[in-house]
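A quick aside before the break. I want you to see a complete sequence-to-structure record at least once, exactly as it would be stored in a machine-readable document. Don't worry about memorizing anything.
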Amino acid sequence: MRRTYISPEYISTKLYGTFNMVEESNFFSAKMLDIEDSLYLRDQDLIYYQNANGEQTDFSIESSLTPQVYSTIDSKKSNHTLLLDETQSQFQKDTNTKWVMTIDLETILSDYIFSSMKKFRSFEGLKNKMTRAGDVNVALRQYVAANVTNRYKFSKIELYISYKDLRNQSILRYKTYWNHVIQKEENKVVKFQTETAFDQSSVKLFFSQEKNSTQYSFEYYYNILFEKL
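That is the input. The structure line, written in tokens, reads:
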């Protein structure tokens, strides 16, 4: 071959394919994570194992380490707010008090899918050095955000409320309590309205106490259903 003595403008460097966590499709096919048709987030715990660096490379070794536990109960508790409705009149507040619950759907769904991938070791063998961020967990969350969460839509909320008599217990008025044990048919609330964000990142629930707030406070819990598009 004849030499030209012209220096190339670009240098080709080999990179791990996992530097790009966005699934690219071609004319014939594309690899894609197999996902469930629906996700019913009730009160599950997902347990998984990893090494100190967050990698999953050898289950026989990692299974002897302290397991990581993801709880839907804790996730739903930390990713919502329940506040008095500021638009209500003083009379409403003093009787059948109106409440507004705001739920961070995006974070709850993302955390659940991430933990499921960890549980089933979907990226087993992936090491920190094989990712752009140098962190397997960051790369997995990027994968979830780019390829998985947008394949689900919010379907419905199940709300449960159990009233507590203020007169017989040392609890405060307008003080509410998170409790997953109250998931019973008699505690299921049917009278509430929802308002979902345009990008389905969050949802607001509007409901009123069915028992007078001068006499009752309440415990509450909710479940979420997501369905595959």
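Two observations worth writing down. Residues 37-228 form one domain. The chain has one domain: 37-228. We'll return to this after the break.
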